[in-house]
Design brief:
Blueprint: H1 28-43, H2 48-75, H3 108-135, H4 138-145, E1 148-155, E2 160-161, E3 178-190, E4 193-206, E5 218-226, E6 236-240, E7 245-246, H5 252-268, H6 278-284, H7 292-300, H8 311-327, H9 332-350, H10 354-371, H11 378-392, H12 400-414, H13 416-423, H14 429-452, E8 456-457, H15 460-467, H16 471-485, H17 489-514, E9 520-521, H18 526-544, H19 547-570, E10 579-583, E11 592-597, E12 600-604, H20 610-620, E13 624-630, H21 635-638, E14 650-655, H22 662-675, E15 679-681, E16 687-690, E17 693-699, H23 710-713, E18 717-722, E19 725-729, H24 735-741, H25 745-750, E20 755-757, H26 768-773, E21 778-781, H27 794-802, E22 806-809, H28 810-813, E23 816-819, H29 865-869, E24 872-875, E25 880-881
């Protein structure tokens, strides 16, 4: 029988008539209170007075209640028995699943409120103490000054390239050649100042010496201190200036775990692409070899939780160990010991991520109950694990992965049993169980997924139902491969080919589901989207509880499908007629599509998400890309290339002269070589044309070194002409490079445009004179919802508005389309017929673009005032023009 999501350890009631016991929710209140308190304290810097008050509440409220209980005990007549049982007892006339009125000791509401206050204060205290080293004290002072230091640290997690690391870690300039290494600082020395402490931090190191570090490794490192990003949970970021100096070896356990992980990776290396990277990701969370396209397919299909170790993996491994122990005829306690050993070993092997920790603590509680011969109470176990974890590791309180894990598990506990019972009346029991689990988990996670953004998957439930048959098999076989690899690598490679069969099934399901029509639907991100999704989920649960509600729901689904068809027909004009440029909504990055003719376009930058970029091009009807221009090599401008190369015919990729970051350049070359697409360097003065698109490279005039960010300041700046519209495409140039572009009158004239693509996602590092020099009517900002950089900056928005520009931004408006009417016939503008350019005729393959007007030189390059008035920007999310 399938356990609830293979994570909770709760067996669903069997058969259509099975009773569903109410969940014991008494521990939910303290868990939520502790979670909220820790999150507030970690996210915002609280004064010491708040921590003192929290400590006072933690100490005094329980003491007061104990004193009150003792006084009532002394007043109670009879044999001295306590007059009122504890609020956590199951006896008396109260509700055994709530806070019943136990003989009037305290009203139920007062008990709940006091419990919440105590655990809220405990969460505030734990979170405040954890965040304190980064908020005040000697380390915080050194971080604010950005001084150079030597530090002694202990590695706490595996290094990972910054391009695949969580975007909340490290400064915005981190790149793929930079390794992100979570550490615990033990000593920091700055000149004569020596600070001894225990504070979490991030090391950012380039080059060799970083990728092979293991948890528990002690090291010395020299570098400069920097502040973590807003809302981060580490005390400092150390920008290392050289490779670390190792102090001894990692402990024996981590060395052994590291060898096992490497053995699994090597055994899977012989599998076909893209499955060779899936087995390590599925078993131990090693995503270093996971293919970008496959990652995008899993995300679009709602299966991305399978590409990282989750509570399901913990449950599968622990359950397999229990089965083996039972076959060996171990008693309850013996089986529990085996289960604990397997659980702890797997956590060490897979690393203690948020969902793994949650499942591990729940598993330990369940195994303790199992050993004692008591029934498992799953909701209390979940609540207890949340309480323990947010108090022990307050950073988890603001972890999205932890929140998704808890929400999914809670949904399976609360909703799945009843839904399984209802579905089992009409469906086979096993199918009903799997459907109930998948639907419950998806429903519970929907509000948070909406808040994150990127749309909601319509195929997630079906995809996970199809995947459930393969996940346990692949996980168990993968663990066998891992163990066997330590003693016999050839045998491990043979077993890996056996494990490849369920991996093939998972890849097939993800790919087919991800590419179904309307696999995902657009949904507002942020608080509004989360609130709307939560309200819809609550209404759905309430309605589906009634028989008439299910009929209404069925009718509503039909109606919504018909309405969606109508909406698709109504908005079939997206992209709107006459679009010349679309800024795709790809999150925190750039991807701009310039229309060269039917089915043909020029792509400028390929921002971070391959899936979102591929979807944007599909919606625009782009079937070929004669040219891709990369303004610079940062991940938020190039990491979407795998979503294009190999999927669409691409003529060539144009890059600027700077080859930094080196690691990202190697990735671009690898992707291009794999797709057999040539790379060509462009410099200032280069010109080209594809159909209706003409461009001239304005910058970089010289290669800048030693700036705050050389790749940003050396971005390729283009003046592009798309039919009648002139666009200034600026990459991520910052104020240093912007001022150079204002140096000569002819350079300033070349900046003139109708539309400005605002540099660097609207960061504060701008020269207002550069922004105003474009004379643009519209400013487009490609920026991600809720990004941690503060983009776009208020100062930049003010400068744009002072320059008379209407501002549109992808984080609020979705994709942005610049629309203009056709040019008058005979205007002599190349490519205006809308047909794509042909090699040798319109410069499709990077020809000189002699038919294009020169920016700032040819007077026909500018439109008349009346022509400019007909240019508009259509915001997709708002469905309006400006």
């Amino acid at each position: 029988m399938v356990a609830v999501g293979m994570e909770t350890g709760l067996a669903l009631p069997q058969g259509p008539s099975a009773a569903v016991a109410p969940a014991d929710a008494r521990l939910v209140t303290p868990a939520l209170a502790a979670w909220v308190g820790a999150a507030v304290a970690v996210r915002w810097s609280l004064p010491d007075a708040a921590l003192v008050l929290a400590a006072a509440a933690v100490l005094t409220v329980p003491a007061g209640l104990l004193t009150r209980a003792r006084r009532r005990h002394r007043r109670a007549p009879g044999s001295g028995s306590v007059a009122a049982p504890s609020s956590m007892d199951d006896g008396g006339d109260g509700d055994s699943h709530g806070y019943g009125d136990h003989d009037g000791f305290l009203p139920a509401a007062a008990r709940v409120a006091l419990t919440a206050v105590v655990f809220l204060a405990a969460g505030v205290l734990a979170g405040g103490l954890a965040a304190r080293p980064g908020n005040r004290g000697p380390l915080a002072d050194l971080v604010r000054r950005g001084v150079s230091v030597s530090a002694r640290a202990v590695v706490t997690d595996d290094p990972r390239p910054a391009a695949t690391a969580t975007p909340r870690v490290g400064p915005p300039t981190a790149t793929a050649t930079t390794f992100v290494v979570p550490v615990r600082l033990e000593r920091v020395t700055a000149g004569s100042v020596v600070v001894r402490l225990r504070a979490s931090a991030i090391l950012l190191g380039r080059g060799v010496g970083w990728s092979g570090l293991l948890p528990s490794q002690h090291l010395d490192v020299a570098g400069r201190l920097a502040a973590p990003r807003a809302g981060d949970t580490v005390a400092a970021v150390v920008l290392a200036i050289r490779a670390p100096r190792l102090r001894g070896d990692p402990d024996a356990v981590q060395r052994f775990a590291g060898r096992l992980r490497v053995g699994l990776r090597e055994a899977a290396a012989g599998l076909p692409e893209p499955r060779r990277g899936l087995l390590p990701a599925l078993v131990v969370g090693d995503v270093s070899g996971l293919d970008g396209d496959l990652r995008a397919d899993f995300r679009r299909a709602g299966m991305s939780h399978l590409t990282a170790v989750s509570g399901g993996n913990v449950a599968i491994v622990t359950a397999a160990a229990l089965v083996v122990a039972a076959r060996a005829r171990r008693g309850l306690r013996g089986r529990a010991v085996v289960g604990v050993a397997a659980l702890v070993g797997f956590v060490v092997l897979a690393r203690p991520s948020a969902s793994v920790l949650r499942a591990a603590v729940m598993g330990l509680i369940g195994l303790a109950a199992f050993a004692a011969g008591r029934p498992r109470a799953v909701l209390p176990a979940l609540a207890a694990s949340v309480t323990v974890l947010v108090l022990a590791r307050p950073a988890l309180a603001v972890s999205v992965g932890f929140a998704l894990s808890v929400q999914a598990t809670a949904g399976m506990i609360v909703f799945a049993p009843a839904w399984h019972t209802a579905l089992a009346r009409r469906l086979p029991d096993r199918l009903a169980e799997v459907l109930a689990v998948a639907a419950a988990a998806q429903l519970a996670c929907t509000p948070l997924l909406a808040w994150i953004g990127g749309g909601l998957s319509l195929v997630a439930i079906g995809a996970n139902v199809l995947a459930v048959v393969a996940v346990p098999v692949a996980t168990v076989l993968g663990v066998l491969v891992l163990v066997v690899a330590a003693v016999s690598p050839p045998l491990a490679r043979m077993l890996a080919h056996v494990a490849d069969l369920p991996c093939w099934w998972l890849v097939t399901v993800a790919h087919r589901c991800a590419h179904l029509p309307a696999a995902t639907v657009g949904w507002p991100a942020g608080v509004l989207g989360a609130g709307a999704a939560a309200f819809a989920a609550l209404v759905a649960v309430a309605v589906l509880r009634r028989r008439w509600g299910r009929r209404v729901a069925a009718a509503a689904v039909v109606g919504l499908l018909l309405a969606r068809c109508a909406v698709v027909e109504r908005f079939a004009s997206w992209p709107p007629a006459g679009w010349r440029l679309v800024a795709c909504d790809v999150g925190q990055g750039d991807a701009l599509v310039l229309s060269a003719g039917p089915g043909s376009a020029v792509l400028v930058d390929a921002g971070p998400d391959p899936d979102l970029l591929a979807r944007c091009l599909d919606e625009l009807g782009v079937r070929r890309l004669p040219v891709i221009v990369l303004s610079h090599l940062h991940a938020d401008h190039v990491d979407g290339l795998p979503g294009v190369l190999g999927r669409l015919p691409v003529g060539e990729v144009l890059v600027g002269p700077l080859r930094e970051p080196a690691g990202q350049w190697r990735s671009v070359r690898r992707w291009a070589d794999r797709a057999r697409v040539p790379l060509r360097t462009i410099t200032a003065g280069s010109r080209g044309q594809v159909g209706a698109v003409c461009w001239t490279v304005l910058a970089p005039q010289i290669i800048l070194h030693g700036t705050d960010s050389d790749p940003n300041n050396d971005s390729v700046v283009l003046s592009a002409r798309v039919g009648p519209v002139t666009i200034l495409l600026t990459g991520d140039v910052e104020a240093t490079a912007q001022r150079l572009s204002l140096g000569r009158p002819q350079d300033r004239a070349g900046l003139r445009a109708d539309v400005l693509k605002v540099p660097h996602h609207g960061s504060a590092n701008q020269d207002p004179g550069f922004l105003a020099a474009s004379g643009a009517r519209f400013a487009l900002i490609s920026v991600g919802t809720g990004n941690d950089y503060g983009h776009p900056a208020a100062s930049t928005l003010r400068a744009l508005r002072r320059a008379g520009m209407a501002v549109a931004r992808t984080d609020r408006d979705g994709a942005l389309a610049v629309v203009a009417p056709r040019s008058p016939a005979g205007a002599g503008r190349p490519g205006e017929s809308g047909q794509p350019g042909r090699p040798g005729e319109s410069g499709e393959s990077g020809q000189s673009g002699e038919g294009c007007p020169r920016p700032g030189v040819d007077p026909s390059a500018r439109l008349s005032v009346s022509d400019r008035d007909e240019i508009s920007v259509v915001r997709r999310r708002a469905g309006e023009g400006s």
